[in-house]
């Protein structure tokens, strides 16, 4: 429970940081186009609100969540965008309130999940800690789109470790959604944390590796920057290929961002 509580606090802090960016925006700015094609700021916040609500359903009523999955089945490639589109039609103040209330409800629901339980999701079932870790990652990633849109440079925090961890753990998933066989051997990943500490994954004697700033790695695995625009170094051909495939989020392959888009 200690780990879950720490993650829930990180989630609250990540949401609060994004809320501080969007709350002062005039209503007209919520219609600004973000780097995600077809998505405005309202779409971004609407998506976060909807996903928090769906995660709450998974935590509180697994049967109802499964019914939602079955209903969405024929629209598997469109229902997420449809939910964001619907949310974006709501007045910004109401959407902001929906997002705020939804994440509070999610936090309460996850605190009530019995230890050792697995929650249903659109991919493999996950623990409460994994669920809130995914919400931290998505909130940070969509928050990056909002920050880029309004010209805000965010200060990296230790919460990036959760994003980076998901990025490392989803290596094989990224290969599979591209129709490729994952490498048999683990990579070594060595990242420089915002405070200068070292974050590491994988065996020290791995033949292939990825190194660089944690922020850059997180921007890579959430596809918020083109690999060529990041200060990441690889050793080995498979590790180099991974940088072109990395994807920490569920669903089909993402389009990423164009090289030099944020130069």
Report what the structure shows.
The protein has 263 residues and is of the alpha+beta class. The chain has two domains: 2-130, Four Helix Bundle (Hemerythrin (Met), subunit A) (Up-down Bundle), CATH 1.20.120; 160-245, 2-Layer Sandwich (Nonspecific Lipid-transfer Protein, Chain A). The chain has helices spanning 2-22, 41-60, 62-72, 79-87, 92-111, 128-150, 160-169, 171-177, 214-221, 237-245; strands at residues 188-192, 198-201, 209-213, 233-235. Strand 1 (188-192) and strand 2 (198-201) form a beta hairpin. It is globular. The termini are far apart. The mean pLDDT is 94. Residues 183-233 form the tRNA wybutosine-synthesis domain.
